[in-house]
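HUMAN: Spend a minute on the protein record below and explain its fold to me.
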Amino acid sequence: MKKVAFIFFLTTAFPALVGAQSSFSAAPTPEEIFSSLPDIPGWTKPTDKEVFDSENLFDRINGAAPLFIESGFCEMTTFDYTKGNDYITVQVYRHATPQDAFGMYAAERSPELTFYKIGGEAHGNNESLFFFSGVLYVKMQSNAASENVNAAMCKIAESIAAKIDKNQQGYPSLFNVFPDANKIEGSEMYVTSSYIGHDFLNKVYACRYKTENLKYQLFIIDMGNADAAKEIMKKYLEFAKQDEPLQEGGVVVIKDRYNGDVPMRWAGRFLFGVYNENGEPTPNASAILQNFTVL
């Protein structure tokens, strides 16, 4: 089996775009976002905005608010472009990190829509558009479906994305570690908390895989240092009531009473794992994990 490795340089903060007056700061304010909106031919530019924080987000998006708040939500700025009775509502969600913004985008991503290279990635149709860029996750919705509406939304998205991230960075770079064989396209996800139901499994990078008779996920957790990674392994073994030696680099099969066998490997600051979505043993899991690594 080909060994999968990747040289990974971690950046915990998104770099500010220095020296360009047209660019946002690393954490754009509602005022920066609103004052930099593009003119769209045929559409009236917004004249005011609304801003929501974690205290009142529920008033605007109701039951979806808890998921956003769990995903490093900071604030949401919303405004409307109008043309007669038609409108395009834009909701700009600012998150604490680019990973959080990607995580929300991925959680709401639909493979049935058309994908665009805007920001990190965008997808939509003639009445909606969704994209992430830097710390922003942006959602647009119109009451009118047309190619004109789609073109207007794409122009708004391109303008916002260019200001927050001139390099148009895509998915978080740790996803480059995941093997391509049998991976389900567009299945990358970032789970901020309680992965597979456990409150100690947080900030998880995961991808779905499928073979003829098997569905499973590969996941990585970056704990920042080896001691912290080891502690998570200890917590999982304690949960499973398994008393066995823990050796760095070795594969340990966690007997998870809720999720079946979950093979995991601790390597430095990283934890690697295989989660079978049917709770069944995953063939060749140890070999997969030994060849699934970050250098």
